[in-house]
Amino acid sequence: MAKKESRAAQRERLLRKAAEIQTPDDCDVTVVGGGAAGLAAAISAAEAGASVVVLERDLECGRSILATGNGRCNFANISLDPRRFNDPQFVAEVCGSRWLDDVLGFFRDCGMRWCLEDDRLYPVSRQAASVRNVLLARARKAGVVLAPAREFQDASWIAPEHVGTHGPELHYDPAKSKNEPAGLAEVVHTLPLESLYLMPGSRTVIIASGGEATPFLGNLGLATAPRTPVLCPLACEDSPLAALDGRRAHVKALLTKKDSFFPSWQERGEVLFRDYGISGIVTFDLSRRAEPGDLVELDLVPDLNKSELQQLVDQFARGSFETGCLDGVLDPAIAIQLERLARELWHVEWPEHDAPATPSEALIKLVKALPFVVVGPAEVERAQVTRGGLLTSQFDPATLASRQHPWLFACGEALNVDADCGGFNLAWAWKSGMVAGEAAAKWALS
Ligand SMILES: Cc1cc2nc3c(=O)[nH]c(=O)nc-3n(C[C@H](O)[C@H](O)[C@H](O)COP(=O)(O)OP(=O)(O)OC[C@H]3O[C@@H](n4cnc5c(N)ncnc54)[C@H](O)[C@@H]3O)c2cc1C
């Protein structure tokens, strides 16, 4: 039987393979980042006739796609709606009215087919590797040079008359070059294996470097909003239900801001109880909206109203309940903890006007509105998305070209755009990549 390759050996092999890839000295479009948005941009630019190089810091392109959707890649949603984003107007202008058709058409042309789970779209294989492989194959077929293990450092513009004689003092002058033919952007990147600095010229550069804070954006004179992790678990004030760590429940979650009496947001879905607070898809969406001190209330039986619950807990309103009375509607491990809490009522801090008069009333309240006070994001290293990045006001939504540097484009999470769970973030990555790729090719070839 073949011996499994060690991690170190795999890294060495991939680095050597990457080092063999020659990047041309001159191309129309350089894409910084070979993730979801970068690959969509590269394919769109190459199919529009441009010569394209993708510089990817990782050892292979498309690796970030493999982790998505728990390895199944929830690549879009049939209910794409800009209101699920932090910047709805910009997203609507970039993505247009045919957003879903454009994304599905793109993947149909890649040879991929999909299936639905609720509103979420997955590849029929339910394997993120399918999504990555069809993208890499289409990029190669279109002639894209995929150059992994290259970390982009910086770019500066060289006016056309200086191409060939350029030096570091020559920088882009937007006023001067407005109506001039394309010059070249000097792209600096490193190849870690040999610590080489390679400096190919490129007529345009597309920033598709994802959600990490990257110093080169500042060097390019672009303004960024600070990065904060979102789509992650929430740490909550000492939970009396720490024993539930690892249990899941299908809930309706309500968020009430700390300075308000009324919920500002609600959503149904799965919550995972953790000893530090809550996790799961509903919590991830909450994490985009919740701040320290906000109150999250979980309705653990959203399909039952209070009187139906009363029937199960204390039909004759005697004020008490029997052990196991909720086992038919709740995970018994959760039910037993809530029963314990309801009996030890005083462990829960109720607002005075809202304090339950009896243990059965307390149990019903806990089941319909289990309270958690938010401390802040948790397990941030595993956050699915970061908010922040390039301010969208600096980019033309029709082309995703920088208003300051017409040769510079951006797409995906590099921009200050984030959305709820459910395939919205990837749908943004694909569509914004397509827009930037097509526009960059057009600019480079004009
Ligand atoms: C665990 C997890 C699960 C997720 N699941 C889903 C899901 O199911 N559905 C969904 O819609 N969204 C999901 N997301 C979010 C989704 O993955 C992102 O929104 C999406 O990948 C963003 O695409 P992007 O191309 O902008 O960034 P990325 O995919 O992160 O790609 C950026 C690329 O740029 C490279 N790079 C960065 N800096 C440089 C540099 N200086 N030089 C060269 N290369 C550089 C990085 O290595 C990376 O490959 C998930 C995220 C995570 C972390």
Characterise this structure:
The chain is 30% helix and 23% strand. It is an alpha+beta fold and 446 residues long. The chain has 2 domains: 25-228 and 384-445, FAD/NAD(P)-binding domain, CATH 3.50.50; 234-377, Elongation Factor Tu (Ef-tu), domain 3. The strands form 4 sheets. Strands 1, 2, 6, 7, 8, 9, 10 and 19 form an 8-stranded mixed sheet that branches. Strand 8 (184-191) and strand 9 form a beta hairpin. Helix 2 packs parallel to helix 13.
Write down the domain tally: 2
Envelope shape: elongated
- CATH topology value of the largest domain: FAD/NAD(P)-binding domain
Distance between the termini: 56 Å
* CATH H-level superfamily of the largest domain: FAD/NAD(P)-binding domain
- The CATH first-level class of the largest domain comes to Alpha Beta
CATH architecture of the largest domain: 3-Layer(bba) Sandwich
Please tell me the overall pLDDT: 86
| Overall SS class | alpha+beta
Unreliable parts: 162-183, 193-199
* Gyration radius, rounded: 26 Å
Strand content: 15-25%
Named once each, the bound ligands are:
flavin-adenine dinucleotide
With helices defined by DSSP (H or I, 4 residues minimum), what is the helix count? Answer: 13
Largest sheet: 8 strands, mixed
Task: Please give the number of β-strands.
Answer: 19
Per-chain topology:
Layout: H1 7-20, E1 26-32, H2 36-47, E2 52-55, H3 63-66, E3 76-77, H4 88-95, H5 99-109, E4 114-117, E5 120-123, H6 128-141, E6 145-147, E7 151-158, H7 174-177, E8 184-191, E9 196-198, E10 201-207, H8 215-219, E11 224-230, E12 234-236, E13 248-256, E14 265-274, E15 277-279, H9 281-287, E16 295-299, H10 306-314, H11 332-343, H12 359-368, E17 370-377, E18 385-390, E19 408-410, H13 424-445
Helix pairs in contact: 2-6, 2-13, 10-12, 11-12
